[in-house]
Amino acid sequence: MTGSRIDPETPTRPIRLADVKSWHETVDVLVVGYGAAGVCAAIEAAQTGATTLVLERASGGGGTTAMAGGVLYLGGGTRVQKACGVDDSPEAMLRYLTASTPDPDPEKFRLYVEGSVAHFDWLVEQGVPFKDALHTERTTQPANDDGLFWSGNEKSWPYKEIAKPAPRGHKVQAPGDAGALLFAKLHEAALKSGARIQYDTRVMKLVLDERGAVVGVVARQDGEDRAFRARRGVILCAGGFAMNDTLRQRHLSRLVGRAIPIGNPYDDGTGLRLGLSARGAAIHLDEYHITVPYYPPGSLTYGILVNGQGQRFIAEDAYHGRIGETASRQPGGTVFLIVDDPIFGRPEIDGFEVVAVEESIAGLEKTLALPPTSLERTVELFNRNAAAGTDPILHKQPAWLRPLTEPPFAAFDLSFGKATYMAFSLGGLWTKSTGEVLTEDGEVVEGLFAAGRNCCGISRSAEGYVSGTSIGDATFFGRLAGRTAAARRPEGRNA
Ligand SMILES: Cc1cc2nc3c(=O)[nH]c(=O)nc-3n(C[C@H](O)[C@H](O)[C@H](O)COP(=O)(O)OP(=O)(O)OC[C@H]3O[C@@H](n4cnc5c(N)ncnc54)[C@H](O)[C@@H]3O)c2cc1C
């Protein structure tokens, strides 16, 4: 799979203010990129009365957000959770999220959790619909319009023991993928707020004053390079870098050739490079979300995942992202899903081949060329414990335990590099919770903000990624960045 590369013809080296001959436009707040983060930043900035202009490279808005499932990770007692009888608290949500990464940003996590219910209400005020219905089946996201589901590892070990589990995946009310509806509603709200949007406008460079503060951008529009001045701030919301071959090779090399990069074609890291060009620092560039979406059907969760030694390595009731990350790190990437007859079902997504069907586990072991007796021993131990309702080593929850005893037995190939693995980037600019971009020394880059996958947000670990944290934090912190930028004292020259 190939994407764009860093083009030597388009360096992001900034322009000095003194070299700007004329400004094409001057506004208070400039937003670069019009996806989840950009639209929310624009709404909040414009609502303060600040003149707000969004520059978007594509011919329409939405970016990766409009391709997405439309799931937002929210909790602590939202309207949908309450209507569905779910007992959740900000404390439980914070404990869960904090456990999901080795590097939780305490301020961002606290604000996100404390503001989660209000953020949900704000989305509803903007016209984003959510249905008060809990989806109980195990799935990557509800195929129908149910508004709430288990979108992470909350119910699986070890998280279950760390924080009281609650479903927090809030899906916008639409069957199938709902990201387009989410964006459409937010776009309507942005237009009402007075924000202006200019499409087919590719931001190429930042403009810096003599102190290094960001005071504008240069963008290619109508075949010309035009300078746009931002009196109060530039907010980078240009998405991640999953589609850039050079950056992927540099930062996510273990995925290259093995996981399909997903996102819109302009997830090419330009936003990241713009931030770096103004002395912004980047964090967690080697982190990503990886998925191996072999379920639904949920019945496959009763199966066991084994590596090339015929050994289990994870509780199979974990979230598909955690399974994807752990599976991809098995020796040689070799992974098989072993099932018996009653639980067999075809994965809804292509790319999970049945590579063996046999009347016995010993036969399966032979066909898969696993070490002699390895799979037999694994299944024998699993079955014995499952019959007793326990999984003492990997802690699969009792609800998903049943012995694999009924032939024929089958093996799906889930090997990394063979089966369908998909990934996008999680790392990005280092920001304060206000969106202000920080330098390597932890100083604020004056006039520069970032939100969404242009920066590193709540979701920052492949092992702990949860569906909904990406759009959840892009919308939440996009809003905060919009408000903060709009409130900033105009500081550029001649302001
Ligand atoms: C198939 C799929 C499903 C997903 N489902 C979910 C989900 O349900 N929940 C969830 O939380 N996450 C999901 N994700 C991840 C999530 O969609 C993204 O991480 C999130 O939408 C990013 O939002 P953003 O605002 O940062 O970027 P985007 O929505 O991608 O917006 C960035 C915008 O910037 C523009 N841009 C880029 N460069 C420039 C430039 N130089 N000048 C001007 N404009 C520029 C782009 O054209 C784009 O419109 C999914 C991802 C994929 C690929």
Characterization of this structure:
This protein is α/β, with parallel strands linked by helices. It has 3 domains: 15-68 and 179-290 and 422-487, FAD/NAD(P)-binding domain (3-Layer(bba) Sandwich), CATH 3.50.50.60; 71-171, no CATH class; 293-413, Alpha-Beta Complex (Flavocytochrome C3, Chain A, domain 1), CATH 3.90.700. The protein has 13 helices and 22 strands. It has helices at residues 36-47, 79-83, 90-99, 106-114, 116-125, 159-162, 179-193, 245-251, 270-277, 320-328, 361-367, 374-387, 469-487; strands at residues 15-16, 25-32, 52-55, 71-73, 134-135, 148-149, 169-171, 196-198, 201-208, 214-221, 224-236, 260-261, 282-283, 288-291, 304-307, 335-339, 354-358, 409-413, 422-425, 428-429, 436-438, 444-450. The strands form 5 sheets. Strands 1, 2, 3, 8, 9, 10, 11, 21 and 22 form a 9-stranded mixed beta sheet that branches. Strands 4-7-6-5 form a 4-stranded mixed beta sheet. The longest helix is centred in the last third of the chain and has 19 residues, at 469-487. The protein is elongated. The mean pLDDT is 96. Residues 32-38, 55-58, 63-65, 67-71, 202-203, 237-239, 262-264, 266-267, 270-271, 424, 452-454, 467-472, 474 line the site of flavin-adenine dinucleotide. The site of flavin-adenine dinucleotide has 42 residues, from helix 1, strand 9, helix 9 and helix 13.
